[in-house]
Backbone:
């Protein structure tokens, strides 16, 4: 591991200025991904600015309704927050399906959003990877692709975003608050992460030195239910093959409001807007849910080992919406 | 870069000079001689390095020692009250919650942290009702301990030990 300087930030302005001034600097949150990447030789910052002691560790209800989640709130605390459990169950469920108890105690809200892909080729400095070293090629495309993208991938990158939390936030219409040298800006969660295109080295639209300070959730949709379901290779402590976050409101047997986001299938949390459009006003039946899922997945492009993700996503979307329509989850 | 820090470990202040690259796990084992936490995978996947940081379980391999000035670190070696074992330690003995013992200090710290999470009513992936009370049944114990691997496969004893300690 390359040597680095360490500073503990006490206020947001100083933290942002320190990282913005040094192209080799990085913010350090819980470290569960960044420290690992440093060990693997995938990241080599020359300065770490530790933001975990910043006063951003609270979950607050917003005056106009909605919730503001500080960027340093730990994943375990957010999952256990009484308001989140009662009014945003999809978020609790997503967090609790990720990592392990001891990792959730370290991982922060901001860091969870900014964790990087676990594509084995990205994590192996001995193989070409456009995300790690732009222009070297993609080892995954013709390699072992069970865990790779079926939606929105490019010739240069087929990696997926690993977060569960971000998928729930995409379905909840969350907004990310970021502070940079030029001030504060609000970024819809669905615009935070990028599709790879020909610049897969850039995971997000954040500029160097911009710090996520909070995530804001709008008021819960009145009368809606929400749930997260994750399909993986073992029952616990594994990344998603496919996951589905959904918020659904049904009245008089018809879909009145629906938000669907998919994990494990793309370079970013995938908001299934085509399926949502196909469902508004439609009968809340398994047949309709499956039809809408099929419309969303028509754009899927599979690789050698991941064709199963298309039927898995279709079936999981259908099952989650069917259960929500039945009132199975809260 | 070297930094002078003081770590509070198992109730004692331990000043030391560390390279910033030193993980909390390496500082404990290699610098302070606190060898209860073990280095298994060194990537946060096996749980054998689990300690309690301010009472909360954490993987000590994925965090730098410099980030823990002012924190209270408790390892499995600091859980007993003099000669009296912590109830979770005693339960592991009574139920054969180990074979070779390598993962045991991590399992025990994880179990102590997890029982506290249960006491606070935190839900898990195995909890059906997110807003209701949580029982320490076997499904809950298995889910909550999934960050600790045991390659001897002593899981049956580990679950039995934690079930008893949860009473």
Residues:
């Amino acid at each position: 591991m390359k040597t680095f300087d360490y500073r503990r930030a006490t206020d947001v302005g100083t933290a942002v200025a320190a990282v913005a001034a040094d192209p080799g600097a990085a913010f350090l949150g819980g470290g569960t991904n960044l420290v690992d990447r440093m060990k693997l030789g995938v990241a080599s910052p020359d300065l770490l600015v530790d933001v975990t002691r910043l006063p951003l560790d609270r979950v607050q209800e917003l005056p106009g309704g909605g919730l503001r989640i500080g960027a340093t709130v730990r994943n375990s605390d957010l999952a256990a927050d009484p308001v989140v459990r009662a009014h945003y169950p999809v978020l609790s469920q997503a967090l609790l399906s990720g990592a392990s108890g001891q990792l959730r105690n370290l991982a922060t809200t901001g860091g969870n959003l900014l964790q990087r892909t676990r594509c084995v080729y990205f994590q192996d400095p001995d193989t070409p990877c456009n995300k790690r070293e732009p222009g070297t090629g993609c080892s995954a495309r013709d390699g072992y692709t069970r865990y790779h993208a079926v939606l929105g991938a490019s010739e240069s990158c087929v990696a997926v975003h690993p977060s569960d939390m971000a998928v729930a936030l995409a379905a909840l219409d969350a907004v990310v608050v970021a502070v940079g040298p030029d001030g504060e800006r609000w970024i819809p969660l669905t615009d935070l992460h990028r599709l790879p295109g020909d610049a897969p080295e850039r995971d997000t639209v954040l500029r160097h030195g911009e710090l996520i300070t909070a995530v804001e959730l709008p008021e819960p949709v009145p009368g809606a239910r929400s749930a997260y379901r994750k399909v993986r290779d073992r029952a616990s402590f594994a990344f998603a093959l496919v996951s589905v976050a959904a918020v659904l409101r049904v009245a008089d047997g018809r879909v009145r409001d629906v938000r669907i986001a998919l994990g494990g299938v793309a370079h970013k949390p995938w908001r299934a807007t085509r399926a949502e459009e196909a469902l508004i006003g439609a009968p809340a039946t398994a047949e309709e849910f499956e039809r809408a899922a099929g419309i969303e997945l028509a754009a899927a492009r599979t690789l050698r080992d991941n064709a199963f993700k298309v039927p898995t996503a279709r079936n999981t979307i259908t099952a989650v919406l069917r259960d929500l329509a039945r009132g199975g989850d809260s | 870069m070297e930094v002078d820090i003081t770590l509070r470990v198992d109730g004692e202040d331990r000043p030391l000079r560390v390279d910033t690259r030193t993980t909390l796990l390496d500082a404990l084992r290699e610098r302070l001689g606190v060898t209860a936490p073990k280095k298994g995978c060194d990537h946060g996947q096996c749980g054998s390095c689990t300690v309690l940081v301010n009472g909360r379980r954490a993987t000590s391999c994925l965090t730098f020692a410099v980030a823990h000035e002012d924190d209270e670190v408790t390892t499995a070696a600091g859980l007993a009250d003099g000669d009296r074992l912590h109830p979770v330690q005693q339960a592991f003995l009574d139920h054969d919650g180990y074979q070779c013992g390598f993962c045991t200090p991590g399992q025990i710290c994880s179990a102590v942290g997890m029982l506290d999470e249960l006491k606070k009513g935190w839900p898990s992936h195995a909890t059906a009702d997110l807003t209701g009370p949580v029982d320490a049944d076997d499904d809950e114990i298995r889910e909550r301990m999934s960050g600790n691997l045991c390659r001897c496969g002593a899981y049956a004893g580990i679950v039995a030990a934690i079930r008893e300690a949860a009473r």
Chain A has twelve helices and twelve strands. The domain at 5-50 of chain A is CATH 3.30.43 (Uridine Diphospho-n-acetylenolpyruvylglucosamine Reductase; domain 2).
